[in-house]
Write a structure and sequence with these properties.
- The structure is a single chain.
- The protein is built from 2 helices and 4 strands, in the order βαββαβ.
- It is α+β, with helices and mostly antiparallel strands.
- The protein has a 4-stranded antiparallel beta sheet with strand order 2-3-1-4, with helices on one face.
Length: 99
């Protein structure tokens, strides 16, 4: 078993309220979930209207698959014109790391 986590810190474009932030964040989370069949959520900076942190996680049988999916998720977030990807952190844990 392999567990992977990606955390992406983003700056939002022309957003002036938390309501506008939700209209940008929700479609990104929904697309990550639907396209890649991962768990995805906004996990940080909830009170800041121009910043968003997305977290993505998945469990798979092979490390290569986990890395491939997390890389694709990062590319999706980076490719969104309404977001500026500031940084990402990725962690992949194998069975040996979980004990």
């Amino acid at each position: 078993m392999v567990v992977g986590v990606l955390v992406a810190d983003c700056l939002l474009g022309d957003v002036h309220s938390l309501k506008e932030k939700r209209s940008v964040v929700r479609p990104v989370v929904a697309e990550l979930r639907k396209r890649f069949e991962v768990s995805a959520a906004e996990t940080g900076d909830a009170g800041l209207h121009r910043r968003a942190e997305f977290s993505v996680s998945l469990v798979a049988g092979e490390r290569a698959h986990v890395v491939e999916v997390l890389d694709a998720c990062e590319r999706l977030v980076a490719g969104r014109p309404e977001l500026e990807l500031l940084s990402t952190r990725t962690r992949v844990l194998d069975d040996d790391d979980l004990e």
